[in-house]
Design brief:
Layout lengths: L2 H39 L4 E6 L4 H12 L9 E6 L5 H14 L4 E7 L2 H5 L4 E4 L11 H22 L5 E4 L4 H11 L8 E3 L2 H15 L6 E2 L2 E3 L7 E3 L4 E4 L2 E4 H5 L2 H5 L1 H7 L1 H9 L4 H17 L7 E6 L11 E9 L2 E4 L7 H25 L1
Parallel strand pairs: 1-2, 1-4, 2-3, 4-5, 5-6
Antiparallel strand pairs: 7-10, 8-9, 10-11, 12-13, 13-14
Helix pairs in contact: 2-12, 5-6, 5-13, 6-13, 7-10
Length: 372
Amino acid sequence: MDQFVIDNMENVAWLQKGLVVLLSIAFFWKLIRYMWSFLKTQKDPVRVLVTGTAGQIGYAIVPMIARGVMLGLDQSVILHLLDVEPAAEALNGVKMELIDAAFPLLKGVVATTDVVEACKDVNIAVMVGGFPRKEGMERKDVMSKNVSIYKAQAAALEQHAAKDCKVLVVANPANTNALILKEFAPSIPEKNITCLTRLDHNRALGQISERLNVQVSDVKNVIIWGNHSSTQYPDVNHATVTTSSGGKRVRELVADDHWLNTDFIATVQQRGAAIIKARKLSSALSAASAACDHIRDWVLGTPKGTWVSMGVYSDGSYGIQPGLIYSFPVTCEKGQWSIVQGLKIDEFSRKKMDATANELMEEKSLAYSCLK
């Protein structure tokens, strides 16, 4: 046989062998990727603590968490429910309802009045329980009760929670309760302790949506500065609305600076009181939803170009005293939040931001006096 033909046949054989090898590699690579993606979907359950679970907000939030609203539809959870001894029977009733609801993502429920058992190995803590201000009570009396509660719960989290535990304080005074918790849980990173101002943020979005008759999902980048109290400052100076012709500034579309600087701010500040007056109960549903929003964005990230409001440990940004838990605009990525920098602050905003910071400094002093 001609040598040229033999050489060609050998080359073809080598090519065939090479092709088989390449196809085999491609097949096994696809198989490995498929198996890896399958394994990745089998996430370990996240342990989520909710304190004050027999109360209104606790009762509203636990089914949301169990349904995947907080951490996503691919993340299973084990719920840790904590309340005080007098609420033990009601707490057990909540546990029974969670079991009866047969949530596919719910892999276990720990219902207890023991703070140590409740905090054991938790990855996320939603601190809803607190002592509410009652008629005739002085501000210092309420602060003293909450300092005692948060000192004890902080100590339990410090000793028994997962080392990377993320904490969200909901109970009022939320900013200062979070500060006390940080004081007595020093091994929890300061960036892992936050308080809820997302409820106020969502209220501001809702007011703009109603005013402009647009979808609330089209409104973004409002800001809640400061304290979760009546001194908070809802700021729309950087907020936009998505329209058919692109993003438009809220101030431009509303075209009523007087309303934005007066009634809008007052409505957001006083919304909680208005709801109590209307339904004779606090705003449990919206608070629970906002807490889920807060944790979801913190863990899974904020959409590109969008920020949200979180009460976080001040690093001195925007001239706010370091060491306060103060609400800033933040973006979140890979489980970490970052304060949005470089926003222009006008004179009106500066006064509002400083006023709510001053209130937080007063609360901090009051809380520390209770500790003594």
